[in-house]
UniProtKB/TrEMBL annotation, chain B:
Organism superkingdom: Bacteria
Encoding gene, per UniProt annotation: tusD
Similarity remark: Belongs to the DsrE/TusD family.
Species of origin: Gilvimarinus japonicus
Name of the protein this chain belongs to: Sulfurtransferase complex subunit TusD
Record-listed E.C. numbers: 2.8.1.-
NCBIfam families referenced in this protein's UniProt entry, alphabetically: PRK00207.1, sulf_tusD_dsrE
Length: 119, 130
């Protein structure tokens, strides 16, 4: 089986890419594929706690992130320098399955996977 | 090399669709094969047959349909992404009681499973997005 790394680089509510990236990850997990998710650049904002999407207008990205564990994705990777640059605290995040990675560790993660899906 | 291309950008919205088209043309001209084109997110807008760009502009949707026909490419449009953006084939138009459909006949609506399956069998998966 080929392994896929999905890199999600967009903020949760500015456009639909964050949510549609998560839908692709959930679909791959549902098909029992080897898939991992890496949040970087503005994508780390998806981890912010206390998200308050507009009821009936926006679906919660935080809720989709927390669903990953049920689909067997026990770790969500996130780029620590992206969070640091944006002042996002590792304490103020919405899921507890995050593993923070340095630049080097991101490089390693990318090289460990057969395919990249970049959103 | 066997490629799958994921297109996330609408025609004219950003350069993603044009870049993907140029890559596909170059790869095929160079003897590579394209296992699947997968249109997702705003990329589904590439599949409407109702686009009518001004005559002095590059007709990107027409270039896609021509390439797909010429090389008999498998062009899949994510059904969930397409339905919420109003890109419908006749079956879905009927199902949701819409007055018309607009999916160009060179494309097919299907699920994200088609992207997953394509990544399993392709040597490279390339994403073209904003």
């Amino acid at each position: 089986m080929k392994s896929i790394l999905c890199i999600s680089r967009h903020s949760p509510y500015g456009n639909a890419l964050a949510r549609e990236a998560l839908e692709a990850v959930l679909a791959a997990a549902a098909f029992e594929q080897n898939i991992a998710l890496l949040l970087m650049d503005d994508g780390v904002w998806q981890l912010k706690d206390q998200q308050q999407p507009l009821a009936g207008i926006q679906k919660s990205v935080a809720r989709n992130l927390s669903a990953l564990e049920m689909f067997g994705i026990e770790t969500v990777y996130a780029h620590q320098p992206s969070a640091h640059q944006r002042g996002l605290s590792a304490q103020a995040i919405c899921i507890d399955t995050v593993q923070w990675l340095t630049d080097d560790q991101v490089r390693q993660l990318i090289s460990q996977h057969d395919h990249l899906l970049s959103f | 090399m066997k490629f799958t291309l994921v297109i996330l950008g609408a025609p004219y919205g950003d350069s993603a669709s044009q870049s993907a088209l140029a890559f596909a043309q170059a790869a095929l001209a160079d003897g590579h094969s394209i296992y699947r084109l997968f249109f997702y997110a705003d990329g589904v807008y590439n599949a409407t047959r109702l686009a009518a760009p001004p005559q002095d502009e590059h007709d990107l949707p027409a270039c896609w349909t021509q390439l797909i026909k010429q090389h008999q490419l498998d062009a899949v449009v994510c059904i969930a992404a397409a339905l919420r953006r109003g890109v419908l084939d006749p079956t879905e138009a009927k199902r949701y009681q819409k007055s018309n459909d607009n999916l160009a006949p060179e494309f097919e609506l299907s699920g994200l499973g088609q992207l997953i399956e394509a990544s399993a069998v392709s040597d490279r998966v390339l994403t073209f997005g904003p």
